[in-house]
Amino acid sequence: MAPRIKTRDRIVQESLALFNAQGERSVTTNHIAAHLGISPGNLYYHFRNKQAIIAELFAEYEARVDDFLRLPDGRGLTIEDKTFYLEALLAAMWRYRFLHRDLEHLLESDAELAAAYRAFARRALVNAKAIYRGFVEAGILRMDEIQLEALTLNAWIILTSWVRFLCTTHQVTGDLSEELLRRGIYQVLALESGHIAEGSQAAVERIAERLYVPLAESPSQGV
C-alpha cells in the first residue's frame, strides 16, 4: 500500500496543477482548499498565504534547474549532452509553466521572490555560459567570447519570454500544450545555427528535427 501523502505536500502538488491549468491569478487559497477538500484554516496552518505556496514551488523549480544546468564532472561535453540540456529545460518549463506565464506579476507581488529570482537568474546565466563554453572547447560550437555571451543572453531571453509570446500572439487563454513549449526550446537551438562546427551539423540537425513544431499547426489553446 502506497504511503499517504502529507497534507502539506498535497497542497503544493495540487496548487501547481491549478496554477498551471488556470493561471496563478485565477486561483485563490479558497479554491485550493476546496479542490483538496480541506478547510481554509487547514491550508493556512501549512502556508500563511498563496505567496508562500508560490515560493515553495519556485524553490522546487530553482533546485531542479540548478541540478541539471551545470557541467558534467570529469569529462568534456558531447552532442548527447546537448540533447540532455534541451530536454531537461523543456521538462522543467513544462512542469512549472505557470511561473513563466505569470512571472512579471509574481515578481511584482513578492519582493522576497523577486530577490530570489534575480539571484537564480544570475547563477543560471553564469552556468549556461560555462556550458556553451564547454561546447566550444569540445569543438561542437565555434564562437568567440563576445558571441558566447550574446548567445547566452539571447537564449535566456527566449526561454523566459516564450510563454508570454504565446499568450499575446497565439491567444492562449487556457493551459498550454507541451508541443508549444517544445517549439520554444527549438528556438534556443536555432540561435546556434551559425556557430555549429561542420562535423557536428548533422547531429544537431537531428536534434532540431525532434524539437521543431510548426506554430500554425499546433493544437488550438484555451477556451
From TrEMBL:
Pfam families, sorted: TetR, TetR_N
Domain (HTH tetR-type) ranges: 5-65
Coiled coil: none
GO molecular function: DNA-binding transcription factor activity; transcription cis-regulatory region binding
Superkingdom of source: Bacteria
Keywords for the protein's UniProt record, in alphabetical order: DNA-binding
Gene3D superfamilies tied to this protein: Tetracycline Repressor, domain 2
DNA-binding region: 28-47
Entry-linked PROSITE patterns: HTH_TETR_2 (PS50977)
Name of the protein: Transcriptional regulator, TetR family
Taxonomic lineage: Bacteria, Pseudomonadati, Pseudomonadota, Gammaproteobacteria, Pseudomonadales
